[in-house]
Structure formats: C-alpha cells, structure tokens
Amino acid sequence: MSDTPLQSSVNFAAIAGRLPPAPGVVVHSAFAQPGYLLERFADASADFAGATVYSLMPMSEPAYGAPAVVESLNLVTFFPGTGLRRTVNQGLATIDRQNLSDIPGLFSTGKRHADLVLLQVSAPNADGDVSLGIAVDYLPAVLAQKPFVVAQVNPRMPFTAGDTRLSLGDIDVCVDVDEPLTELPASAGDAVESAIADHVAGLVEDGDVLQAGIGSLPDLVLARLDHLKHLGGHTGIITAAWRRLIEAGVVDNSRKKRFAGTTVTTMAGGDAGFYTFLDNNPAIEFHACDQTHGREVLAAIDGLCAINSVLQMDLAGNANAETVNGRRIAAIGGLADFAGGASRAPGGKSIIALRSAFRQRDSGELVSNMIPRLDGNAPLSLASDSIDFVVTEYGVAPLRGLNADARARALIGIAHPSFRDDLSRSSGC
User: Fold this and answer.
1) Whether pTM exceeds 0.90
2) Going from the N-terminus, what domains does the chain have, and what CATH number goes with each?
3) How sure is the predictor about 1, in pLDDT bands with cuts at 50, 70 and 90?
4) Cα separation of 424 and 413, whole Å?
C-alpha cells in the first residue's frame, strides 16, 4: 500500500465491518483532533457499538461526545481537555488516570489496545511521508500495534521535525480534508496571574531548560524572560508564547547536552501563524511522551526548570491539580513527571503556582486554595517531595529541605491574608 490514494470521503460502516466487535479506537490528540473524521465516525457510531474511544486532551468538543452518540460508545480520556471536561462531569466519559510518561507503555505491553486510529496529518513530502504534526504523544506505541489507520490529510497541518513521520503506505484510508486546525486563543490573564508570573519569572535563571504548560499564566511567565540568556526548552506542549523567545535567541538550547540546539515537545497549540512557524522548522522537535516526560530523561537534564499550576495545596505541601468542589477540571497529565524530574535534576527547580483564593460563583464567597489538609474528595496530584517552590500572588515559598512545621509556616506566609490566622491555628504554627 505504498501508494495509498487520497479519497474525498470515508465509509466508516465498511471500516467497522473489518474490525472486531467493540474495538479500541484512538483519536489524534489535543489540537490535532481530526474534526471531519470525528463527524463521520459519530454519524456511524451505531456501527461501532461498544467501542472504547481513547483520547488525550481534546481541545474542542468532539462530535463523538454528543449525548446521542455517547450511548453507543465507551469514552475514555487520559486527560479531558476543554473538549471533554463537561462530558466527564456529566458522567458520560471516564478518565484513565495515568502519568503521561506511562501511557505509551500501556499500548506497547498490550494493556490497552487499538484496532482503529483516526489521525490528522500533513500533506506528504517528496518521499511520500506525512507528519503527525502538532501532536505525537503516545501515537508511536499505538501505531506499533498495527491498527487500521484512517487519516485526514490536511495541507494546514505543519510537517514538524522529530519523531513525526508516517509513510503513506502505513495508512489504510487517506481522506483529503482542508479545514482549519483547532487553535489556542490568546489569553491576557488578570492582575492576580500577572503578580504570580512576576514571582515565577524571578526564579528562572540563565541557562535553565524550561517546561511550561498551557494557559495565560505560563504565557505571562514566558513574556517576562527576555533579559535571560541561553535558555532551553524541553516541555510537554509548546505554544505561540515560545515563538518570540526562540526567534530572539533567548531560547537557543545551547547548554543542553541532549537535543542541543533544539526545543523538544510532544504537542503544540497556537494560531495559524504559529502552525506555519512550526512547519519544517528543525529548531523544534516533537517526540513521544515517554521521551519528553520520562522521569529518567528529565532527571538527567541540567537546570530543568518545571513551571506548573495546581488548584489547591495543603500545609504539608501536597497539591490537587484535578478537581474543584468535586468538579473535574483536569487529570494528572504530565505534572508529576515534570515536577518529579525537575526536583531531581542537577540544578533543577520544580515550581508550583496557584492563586491564593477564589470566589464562589453563586455566593461570591472567598475560598482559600491553601488548606490545612487535602480531604478524601481531593486527589493527591503531587506530593511535597516533588516541589521546590510554591508561588502565589503574595510571594514565593521555598520548600526544599524544610521540615513539616517550617513548610507549613512558609505556605501560610503566601496564603491569602484573610485566611492566614485560621491556617496558623489549624496547623499549630
């Protein structure tokens, strides 16, 4: 099948007939989600009754998540993203709670199985290869299972560098689809996030290798690093906020021993201009998430500076990054991988940021995000031994090397002032 032809449409009913009953279906992740294919798949959902659909951080609502479609499918996501958050909270999808570094191994060992993969890929190059573009994550392990592969070939998908190539001959059905990629809207953040970003940026030093996530806070931090030199990038996702630093030479990756001169990621999200910037750009490589997030890989990176956010923290230094008032916001994702790796890396720093408090939508009541202890309704997303610095809008609490009482006092010192006395009484500090 070295010359797999481009088709104008796809017949999912016929494809279902070639698969075993209740097949495993893997969908291209995050901003690479193949919109056209998912609409056609959802139309044929009755032919896939009982199928388990695996996803990772879908960033727009997928057609298979519609209530009438979900009835035929078993939706499982490793990270809900904005696209499946509501579906998860409605009880129509479940979270397979895994560290991102561990997901490829689930497929390579056969603990999870894919019979069908739905991809969105770039136009082919002169060698007849396409690119997985802006999301690689666990797909190499999935494709190694030799599932039936359906891909929409989109000229708007960048041909990215790294472990992204796929031969047209390894694709069973190719559909010609020209549609806009899912974009990541710019977010300016607010005064609280701006204050947090000031504190976080003050911890970053020349030569650090950065990991930063997605959202207004990491973007604000990256916007404050122009004065630094020889920064590197080894991250789970790269956004448009990185572009200016790369083009200005602030992020030059010159001090990295592995992937020298190259920013490494497993995903990307931005606008159309950013996707064009990624096209055939050798300065940015995409690799599987057991490489980008592997603990041993991360712990060997000199000066790895991991910047992550959580929703809630207790005075023991343990963090919840997944739920608020029982409502699911996120999953574990790459948080524990990067925080644990950075805290163990030579000269590394694991930085955790959070707002000191939030207001209840219904009552307007101010609620502290710093609490005496995580209760049974809040997951332990990250333990204190993987955290070096905690940052709120009120300052920085260095935790490395502190005993329990000193750690509690440091965290109380950056809690919202309205709750510090109660926190002190509850902790006995």
Assistant:
1) yes
2) 6-176 (3.40.1080.10), 191-427 (3.40.1080.20)
3) very low
4) 10
